[in-house]
Amino acid sequence: MIGAAIACFLSRRGARPVVIERHEIAGAASGKSGGFLALDGCRGSPLDRLARRSFGLHAVLAEELGNPWGFRRLTTYSGHASEGGHAGGTARLPWLAGSVAITGRIGGPQTTAIVEPRAFTMGLMRAAEAAGAEVKRGTVTGLARSGVTLESGETVEGDAVVVAMGPWSNFSGLPPVYGFKGHSLVFRTGDAIPAEALFLEYREASGEVLSPEIFPRADGTVWACAISSTAALPPDPADVGPDAGAHARLEALCRSLAPALAEAPVVARQACFRPVTADGLPLMGRVPGLDNVYVATGHSVWGMLNAPATGEAMAELILDGAARQVDLAPFAPGRFQ
Ligand SMILES: Cc1cc2nc3c(=O)[nH]c(=O)nc-3n(C[C@H](O)[C@H](O)[C@H](O)COP(=O)(O)OP(=O)(O)OC[C@H]3O[C@@H](n4cnc5c(N)ncnc54)[C@H](O)[C@@H]3O)c2cc1C
Q1: Mutate to test the pocket of ligand 1, among 165, 180, 284 (most ligand atoms within 8 A of CB)
Q2: Which helix (H) or strand (E) holds 55?
Q3: 2, 22, 33, 211, best to mutate for ligand 1 pocket (most atoms within 8 Å of CB)
Q4: What is the pLDDT of residues 199-215, one digit of tens each?
Q5: What is the pLDDT, as a whole number, of residue 87?
């Protein structure tokens, strides 16, 4: 997502980026994430300005590029439920089971939205290609004097290099990036569930509390997650798989939340890793001590939201020497030195 967004904004300004992909475009977290977007999602953090700019850019990109990724505005609620429980006399939504109590409204259509993340990533990549970018299959193994080296032995040269390999962005000279695993399911529900997203607290019979997120998408599917883990990141993105039992546990939870989810077929069972840094903020900027090397990763739980403004800012930084719309200083890779 981050590589595609940067390529999109660079190529639209006349540059000719080459995106080197080891596995497949949107084959990792960017194709499997929730795709949930919130204007206020990063309020109170140094990411706030980036997120606000990015939320606006999502609407602009959907308008400009025909929205094949189902950008859709949502009303978003918080609530709680417990396994086998009943919510009693609290607020409800008609499509939810009686066990789900609604406790708040997180946002409305002006402040919360969703994209289908794979289609969005592909959409920006295709827009980049239409403007002159190139996608090249290959495994980057290191930095060269002016470019990168590939596992094949080839060197790809460029005026600038941007490391945007999500949790795999670990080259010497760069601050470390880690992977934090999440599981998700996609149900086909047709039009049974309205444009209402949910963030819940769910108490299992064992007493363990999970935080399910339920997002209805424009294509008649519902994306759901609740189970994260500290499983190790495999070196090859193609080898990412689920933890034993995680999908069955998530499926049982989801089916208890709404009659429409109880009956719906599961069309995807997914696992992926969020890229995270030691201080929880992304790395965005020029890498000190290396010539013309930039990094853009570590977007953690908000990579889909923050991708457009990241693409715009990185393109400005590379082409103009500074980002104009957002201040990248809090994300400087040199902050760990
Ligand atoms: C369960 C889950 C739910 C999420 N929900 C949301 C959400 O609702 N909203 C939101 O805003 N964000 C969400 N996120 C976060 C978001 O998905 C990530 O922040 C974002 O996808 C990160 O994008 P990326 O491009 O940095 O990394 P990735 O998507 O991991 O992409 C990295 C790419 O680099 C490639 N690569 C790796 N190594 C090499 C190599 N050596 N050579 C060449 N290519 C290589 C990989 O194959 C991959 O395609 C979620 C994440 C998870 C895990």
Answers
A1: 165
A2: helix 48-65
A3: 33
A4: 999 999 999 999 999 99
A5: 62
